[in-house]
């Protein structure tokens, strides 16, 4: 049995003997990705639990379990963890780290030590964020957006959260930088940009957003810290500042950030659909370019968060128009995926089920986003449950669903084992049903005027909250079950072999399963497209000794 | 388990050989990465300049008055010092590339000396402003000072931006001392000078930012003092 990356590793400092230190100091991209996954999903469950406490509180009108101030801190904690600790680093840090270098035939990322440093920067940021939970003043109660002037005047520990968000932003920038250089420099010979797998395209577009948008929010957070501690008056109207300026600066980053989340997830979809349809992907170039254009246009739409904050009417119209425009490349992707499946030999494995489910949920999430991009409609729906339901359909029903799809898809690659297909499908159906039951009633409640972030409500909204509660119970059951299935698969699953899905991209052509320390023992020359199928069979075949094509 | 790089060859179907690029010793990769990082610095300071110019349009006269009260002699001296230090840094890199290690080290020391001089002068400036009652201190002095809103914003941004710039100078000095250690250890040489190259690039960004900070803070109010000359 050959050695895998679980058996040996390169370290940032020295050659430690203990397994534990080898993991702590590892510079192997696959191990770092796994550690990100472990930490991230721990936080994910904390945030899910926080959300469940809020659902429990909202089961009936009035105060039951927690008071209003705690509720404010709860939704801030939920938002901060989900946004800054889970979904922004999410797909790139876990799957990007593990899979992207394998896909382009690289031995590691361009700067493996920087990658290691970035991981620990992320841990530092996470610790700083959570430290304020245990201080006297308590966790921030501002919401994850830290809107001025409230964030400058509240007595809670906003400063910790601001510093943490800054550190996590740094980590995000460095990951993006690392991936950009890796994709530019370390592609296998012959692999041009038009021969890269589409997940790599997604990571590439994302990396540019990480690099170009994050510094703006970084400096905004620094200005907010300076303001809070030195009383400059940049954002506080009582001191002559402009709070709307904070919203502008904040959303200049934070709106592109949602494309930063979704683009690598779309990349996962573009891997799964052709593999399980046994068909060459439809419109490869249009999918690749739509990633790039979403990243580009995504910079110019932040103003749609500020329709009710006070902005010139001309600016509103322009922002509204530009926001509609983002839907075009997104729509192109969806048509391409559906066209790929047309006349394909579709195999309904778990990753494919997740991908198909996402086509439904993300379409709802995306189209409701177009409705609130309209100025008039948005005035009615701003800060209601409609908006909440919209972005959870897009984020949970888009990014996280595809993240799960990716976890199922690359699970055999990472662990060398296979999970139980039947159980994994049950987990999917539970989550899919629970998810829709949880969020769909909120569209209606929001439309009738249920405002977000309230811990109490009028009796007529009770029915929607109760539907949501039962949806949440089903969803969390499915979620927990899915991780049980993963755990069982990892410990007791059957060996999967190197290419269980009959996929075509390079990460499935490893010499052993799980992959060895330095990935491909021999790098192939890439003179083929990433998804070449003929009559349902992969076209490209390799002699694994020499990695030469033998088809 | 060594980190040594063994060049690898991929062979295509016609039997042509292609060298595989590894991450070890990838000079252009190192340069590209650092250029991208410098890009983020530009964006950070760019966002602050945006805030600054926004408030400038709201309080134009306050900004001119506040700017007029800054010390242009010290600021100008610092500008010259920083530009000369960029020259010494660049010359040092040229010397390293021609193999003159001793000359390169001399130039790095000169850069460190100039950077320190910059910080000392900056310190004098800050303490002078402190004695005039303009300083950032826990909501007190600045908030209670009788200055109009616009001037407070100007000085608030002035301290934030020059402070952050000074912090970059400090980091730069640390990087240069580290670079000297690496040169002494033989890790940076004529053939392997990516670290030197990138630190020189960093130093260029530091003075480039100052080239924009200086006119925006010191020069916009100069006309009022000199009567428009």
Descriptive notes:
The complex is a heterodimer of chains A (551) and B (229). Chain A is mainly alpha-helical and 551 residues long. Chain A is 64% helix and 2% strand. Chain A has 16 helices and 6 strands. In chain A, the strands form 3 sheets. A two-stranded antiparallel sheet of chain A has the order 1-2. A two-stranded antiparallel ribbon of chain A has the order 3-4. A two-stranded antiparallel ribbon of chain A has the order 5-6. Chain B has 229 residues and is mainly α. Chain B has a single domain, classed as Up-down Bundle (Four Helix Bundle (Hemerythrin (Met), subunit A)). Chain B has 8 helices and 2 strands. In chain B, helix 1 packs across helix 2 and helix 1 packs parallel to helix 7. The N and C termini of chain B lie far apart (68 Å). The chains are: A mainly alpha (551), B mainly alpha (229). The interface between A and B is large, with 59 and 47 residues.
């Amino acid at each position: 049995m050959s050695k895998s990356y679980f058996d040996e590793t390169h370290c940032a400092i020295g050659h430690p003997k203990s397994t534990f230190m080898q993991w702590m100091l590892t510079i192997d991209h696959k191990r770092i990705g796994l550690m990100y996954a472990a930490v991230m999903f721990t936080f994910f469950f904390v945030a899910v639990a926080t959300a469940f406490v809020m659902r429990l509180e909202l089961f009936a009108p009035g105060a039951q379990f927690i008071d209003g101030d705690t509720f404010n801190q709860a939704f801030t904690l939920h938002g901060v963890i989900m946004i800054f600790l889970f979904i922004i680093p999410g797909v790139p840090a876990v799957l990007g780290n593990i899979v992207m270098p394998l896909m382009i035939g690289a031995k590691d990322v361009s700067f493996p030590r920087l990658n290691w440093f970035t991981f620990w920067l992320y841990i530092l940021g996470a610790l700083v964020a959570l430290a304020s939970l245990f201080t006297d003043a308590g966790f921030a109660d501002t919401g994850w957006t830290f809107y001025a002037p409230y964030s400058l005047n509240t007595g809670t520990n906003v400063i910790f959260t601001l510093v943490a968000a800054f550190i996590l932003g740094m980590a995000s920038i460095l990951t993006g930088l690392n991936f950009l250089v890796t994709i530019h420099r370390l592609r296998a010979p012959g692999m041009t940009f038009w021969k890269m797998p589409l997940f790599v395209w997604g990571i590439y577009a994302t990396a540019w957003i990480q690099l170009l948008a994050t510094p703006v929010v970084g400096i905004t957070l620094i200005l907010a810290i300076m303001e809070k501690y030195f009383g400059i008056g940049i954002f506080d109207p009582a001191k002559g500042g402009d709070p709307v300026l904070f919203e502008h600066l904040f959303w200049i980053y934070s709106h592109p950030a949602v494309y930063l989340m979704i683009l690598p997830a779309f990349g996962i979809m573009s891997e799964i659909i052709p593999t399980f349809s046994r068909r060459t992907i439809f419109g490869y170039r249009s999918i690749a370019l739509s990633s790039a254009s979403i990243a580009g246009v995504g910079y110019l739409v932040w103003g749609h968060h500020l329709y009710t904050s006070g902005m010139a009417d001309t600016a509103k119209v322009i922002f509204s128009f530009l926001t509609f425009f983002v839907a075009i490349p997104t729509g192109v992707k969806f048509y391409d995926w559906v066209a790929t499946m047309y006349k394909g030999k579709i195999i309904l494995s778990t990753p494919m089920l997740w991908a198909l489910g996402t086509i439904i949920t993300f379409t709802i999430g995306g189209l409701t986003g177009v409705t609130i991009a309209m100025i008039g409609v948005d005035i009615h729906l701003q800060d209601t449950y409609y908006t909440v339901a919209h972005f959870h359909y897009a984020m949970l029903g888009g990014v996280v669903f595809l993240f799960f799809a990716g976890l199922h898809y690359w699970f055999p690659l990472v662990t060398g084992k296979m999970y139980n297909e039947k159980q994994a499908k049950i987990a999917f159906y539970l989550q899919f049903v629970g998810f829709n039951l949880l969020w769909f009633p909120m569209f209606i409640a929001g439309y009738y005027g249920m405002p977000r972030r309230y811990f109490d409500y009028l009796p007529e909204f009770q029915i929607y909250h109760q539907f949501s509660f039962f949806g949440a119970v089903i969803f969390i059951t499915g979620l927990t079950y899915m991780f049980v299935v993963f755990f069982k698969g990892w410990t007791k699953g059957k060996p999967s072999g190197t290419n269980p899905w009959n996929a075509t991209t390079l990460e499935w052509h490893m010499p052993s399963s799980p992959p060895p320390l330095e990935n491909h023992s021999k790098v192939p020359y890439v003179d083929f497209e990433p998804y070449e199928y003929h009559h349902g069979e992969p076209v490209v075949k390799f002699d694994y000794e020499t990695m030469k094509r033998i088809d | 388990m060594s980190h040594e790089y063994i060049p690898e060859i991929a062979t295509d179907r016609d039997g042509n050989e292609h060298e595989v690029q590894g991450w070890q010793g990838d000079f252009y990769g190192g340069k590209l990465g650092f250029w991208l990082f410098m890009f983020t610095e530009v964006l950070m300071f760019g966002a602050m300049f945006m805030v600054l110019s926004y408030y400038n349009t709201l309080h134009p006269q306050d900004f001119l008055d506040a700017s007029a009260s800054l010390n242009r002699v010290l600021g100008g001296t610092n500008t010259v010092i920083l530009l000369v230090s960029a020259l010494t840094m660049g010359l040092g890199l040229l010397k390293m590339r021609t193999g003159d290690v001793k000359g390169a080290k001399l130039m790095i020391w000169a850069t460190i000396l100039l950077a320190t001089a910059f910080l000392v002068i900056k310190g004098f400036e800050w303490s002078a402003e402190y004695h005039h009652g303009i300083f950032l201190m826990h909501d007190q002095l600045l908030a209670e000072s009788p200055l109009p809103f616009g001037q407070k914003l100007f000085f608030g941004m002035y301290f934030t931006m020059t402070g952050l710039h000074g912090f970059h100078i400090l980091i730069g000095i640390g990087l240069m001392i580290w670079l000297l250690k690496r040169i002494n250890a033989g890790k940076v040489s004529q053939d392997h000078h990516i670290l030197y190259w990138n630190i020189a690039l960093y130093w260029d960004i530091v003075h480039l930012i100052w080239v924009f900070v200086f006119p925006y803070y010191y020069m916009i109010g100069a006309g009022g003092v000199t009567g428009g000359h």
